[in-house]
Design a protein that fits this description.
- By secondary structure, this protein is of the alpha+beta class.
- The protein has 2 domains: 112 residues; 58 residues, no CATH class.
- The protein is built from 6 helices and 3 strands; from the N terminus they run αβββααααα.
- It has a 3-stranded antiparallel sheet with strand order 1-2-3.
- α1 packs across α2.
- The longest helix has 19 residues.
- The radius of gyration is 16 Å and the shape is globular.
- The protein starts with 13 loop residues before the first helix and ends in a 7-residue tail after the last helix.
Length: 170
């Protein structure tokens, strides 16, 4: 994907989503938790509560892999947490019209993500994910027909969440 195909100005930064959330829900809260951290991979869950007694918080999940660059190691954890918060707020309809946050799209543009890179990881996760046969077939069909970089990233996050150890999933 060429960087010129994205107009980053059309994507809302997570900080703006957070402001909109607290404006609409002044007694609400945003809670995050790392669900998995191993071998250069972090998986985060964010929960958005409209008020202190919200029985059904909105959630968002994100994952990040650390690159070979040692300077990047300190930022990948923070980027993952920010992405999870952005997705939870998007699920709460605070995305400003577009689901991916500006930060997520900047990452796509910066890395020029190729869909073939995570396909091997997706296939490995698919082999162990507890999925109904029909859903597994739909995912396999998507892999055969091709995925955008963003779709591959989201599918990998979904499968990581499904395969996370039960003690980590709450």
């Amino acid at each position: 994907m060429a960087a010129s195909r994205f107009d980053l100005g059309r994507y809302v930064p997570v900080r703006d989503r957070i402001r909109a959330f607290y404006k609409e829900f002044p007694t609400g809260s945003i809670r995050t938790e790392p669900v998995r951290l191993e071998d250069g991979l972090v998986l985060f869950k964010a929960s958005v509560y409209r008020d202190p007694h919200d029985p059904a918080p909105t959630t968002g999940w994100a994952h990040e892999r650390v690159g070979a660059d040692a300077a990047e190691f300190g930022r990948f954890f923070e980027r993952c947490e920010t992405a999870a918060v952005g997705r939870a707020l998007a699920n709460r309809n605070l995305a400003g019209g577009r689901r991916p946050s500006r930060e997520e799209m900047e990452k796509v543009v910066q890395r020029r993500t190729t869909p073939s890179e995570p396909v091997g990881r997706i296939r490995a996760l698919l082999a162990v994910a507890p999925l109904p046969v029909a859903r597994r077939r739909r995912i396999e069909e998507k892999l055969r027909s091709g995925l955008t970089g963003q779709a591959a990233h989201e599918l990998e996050a979904y499968l990581l969440a499904l395969t996370a150890p039960k003690r980590a999933r709450k």
